Amino acid sequence: MATETVDEAFAALTRRRVDAAYGLAWAILGNDGDADDATQDSFALAWRHRRSLRDPARFDAWFGRILVNVCRQRLRRRARERVRLLTDADNPAVSDSSAQMSSRDAITRAMARLDPDHRIVVVLRYWADLTVDEIAERLDVPAGTVKSRLHYALRSMRPRLEDQP
Fold first, then answer.
1. Which CATH architecture group holds 1-81?
2. In angstroms, what is the C-alpha Rg of the chain?
3. CATH topology of domain 98-165
4. How far apart are the first and last CA of the chain?
5. How many CB atoms within 10 Å of residue 71?
6. Less Cβ crowding at N or C end of the chain, within 10 Å?
7. pLDDT category, 97, cuts 50, 70, 90?
8. Residue (of 6, 8, 9, 33) closest to 22 by Cα position
């Protein structure tokens, strides 16, 4: 009976977070297919390790760490691949004159050039709107490391974004 209760509680926790998990995975990976796969893999991994969740109130941090680690592995694997699939971010539409679209494309290209650890902290800070301490907890690194990664990521992105009209 206790197992059913844990399983039911876990299922309820995950059901409410599927869309947010997909959104975060997409923001980190920048690709629909990879985000789908990472989200599914994260929930499957979380399910297999559900008994390690001691406090259901800490589910977001616990699951967030799993999701970020799965996304990091995908980014690293992608970087090692010799052949890379072209995405819309690699080939922005030439006929688009919208400044907003142009800015979004520039940000997407600048983010794609970041290494996985830098990309993840930028997404968690500016897309997921987490504090430095929350990011540090999710990544299991010191807050100073998060600040450093943010600094270097933004410094790397800045020249690419300043050249935009």
1. Orthogonal Bundle (1.10)
2. 18
3. Arc Repressor Mutant, subunit A (1.10.10)
4. 62
5. 26
6. N
7. low
8. 33
